[in-house]
Amino acid sequence: MKRTRYVSAATAVVLMTGGPVAVATAAAADPARTATAAPVAARADVTAESAAAAALKHYPGVIESLDKDGSVWHVDVIGKDGKGHAELEVSASGSVTGQNRDTDENAAENKALVSAKFTAQQAMKAALAAHPGQVTTVEWDDDGTASWHVEVKGKDGKTWDAQVNPTTGKVTQSGSDADSDDDGDGDDNN
C-alpha cells in the first residue's frame, strides 16, 4: 500500500513538471500504469475544422459558434430548420463528449444564420487564407450587420481577429494583439 502511495505521489510530481513526456517515463517506471498513461501521451489536439466536422456529424445543422477551451472545443449548432439547437463539446480526440439540446428556438431569429451563403467552415478557410495559423474561435455576429468573427492564432503566437462577410466571403481585419502585452509584465517584450 505504501509503495502505491509513493509511486502515485512520484507520478503526480513528474506529471506536473514534465507533461506528456513524463507520462511515458512514469509509465515505464510502473508497468501496471502503462495502460492508463499511454493514451494521454498519444493525445493529439483536434483542429477547429475537425471539431466542426465532428459536431455536425453528431448533430446536423449550421455552426453558430465554435470556441476552444483548453483541449476541448465548445460548438453551438443550429438545426437546419432554425428551431433546433445543440451545445456540444468535442474532446481532444475528436469525440463528442457532451451536449444540451433544445428544440424550441425561434426560427426567425436564426434565419440569417441558416441562410448565410458562407458557413462557419468557409469563414474559417477565408480567414486562414488571409492570415495563416490555427483558428481558435468562430462566432456568428448578427448585432447590426451580420458577419462571422474569426480568431486565428498565428505561428508567432499572436491572435488575429477577422470579420468575414457571410454573403461575399470578404475578410477584413478587425484587430490583432500584435501590440499588446501578452505576458502581463508591463512591457511589450514578450
Description of the molecule:
34% of the residues lie in helices and 29% in strands. It has 190 residues and is of the alpha+beta class. An eight-stranded antiparallel β-sheet has the order 4-3-2-1-5-6-7-8, covered by helices on one side. A hairpin with a 5-residue loop joins β3 (85-90) and β4. α1 crosses α2 (34-42). It is globular and about 40 Å long. Residues 1-42 and 178-190 have low confidence and may be disordered.
**Oligomer designation:** single chain
Would you count the extended β strands for me?
Answer: 8
Mean pLDDT: 76
Shape: globular
Give the N-terminus to C-terminus distance in angstroms.
47 Å
Structural class designation:
alpha+beta
Q: Which ranges are low-confidence, i.e. pLDDT below 50, for 5 or more consecutive residues?
A: 1-42, 178-190
Radius of gyration: 21 Å
Major sheet? 8 strands, antiparallel
| Count of helical stretches | 5
User: What topology, given as strand order, has the largest sheet?
Assistant: 4-3-2-1-5-6-7-8
* Strand-residue proportion: 25-35%
How are helices and strands ordered from N to C?
A: HHHEEEEHHEEEE
Helix content: 25-40%
